[in-house]
Amino acid sequence: MVQLVKPAAVSRDVLRGNIQDKYTDVATEPEQGFHFHTGLPLTAMLGYDSAAIDSLPAATVESFAGTGNPLAIGRLAEGAVVLDLGCGAGLDTLLAARQVGQAGRVIGVDMTPAMLDKARAGAATLGLRNVELREGFAEDLPAEDASVDVVISNGVINLCPDKVAVMGEIARVLKPGGHIQIADILVHQELPQDAKDDIELWSG
Amino acid sequence: MLDHAGFVGLEWGPQIDVFSGSKHESDAKEFDTRGVTFRAVKPH
């Protein structure tokens, strides 16, 4: 018997609005500081290769937010089609685009237009033609069924109240034999339902 | 959740205390919250 996590009783639309506001600030005013780490110090904390980070546009790095390095658990194959779920300012998107090369493609998906603008600008600065940015939600990915080899994501699924729906959507867009490389947060203690239902704790 | 979506071959990467030194450090510690990385496969 499969034990499913009970979805939190928060308004998905209100939560999306709060998160969009927060991450618009991370995109446009990254210097203001947030309740979570961001930017270059975070890349060092998470073990990203410093030379790779230094090769990226400063505007990409300054708006980076994440909880791990999804590319550290396996190198992406040349020619692979990759979807970066919640790509933000595009740090992982750009690194992935270099790994898959011109024969491959990376589709960055995010619901925050200001973040997509930064990701798009970063790809243009690096002259990466194998990057495509799409606006969309984790629960309704803008991608065809069985069209992607790898889904990567970094610190995004924890922001989605219905994680079962998100994982089902990821499975939908993956080709058979495709895989996920995901960084996120894991809570080792049982969260009380009132904490799960407190929208302020979700978006900070 | 991964099983329910049909994924197999789960592999875990290292865990990281990603909220250390942040404004949410105490909340994160209370619930033993860690950054994790994992890989899993959609079967053929």
Structure summary:
The complex is a heterodimer of chains A (204) and B (44). Chain A has helices spanning 12-28, 39-45, 50-54, 58-62, 91-100, 113-126, 163-173, 193-196, 199-203; strands spanning 81-85, 105-110, 131-135, 148-154, 174-187.
Notes on the structure:
The complex is a heterodimer of chains A (204) and B (44). Chain A is an alpha/beta fold. Chain A is built from nine helices and five strands. Chain A has helices at residues 12-28, 39-45, 50-54, 58-62, 91-100, 113-126, 163-173, 193-196, 199-203; strands at residues 81-85, 105-110, 131-135, 148-154, 174-187. A five-stranded parallel β-sheet of chain A has the order 3-2-1-4-5. Chain A is globular and about 50 Å long. Chain B has 44 residues and is α+β, with helices and mostly antiparallel strands. Chain B has one helix and two strands; from the N terminus they run E-H-E. Chain B has a two-stranded antiparallel sheet with strand order 1-2. Chain B starts with 7 loop residues before the first strand and ends with a strand. The relative contact order of chain B is 0.36. At the A-B interface, helix 7 and strand 5 of A face strand 2 of B.
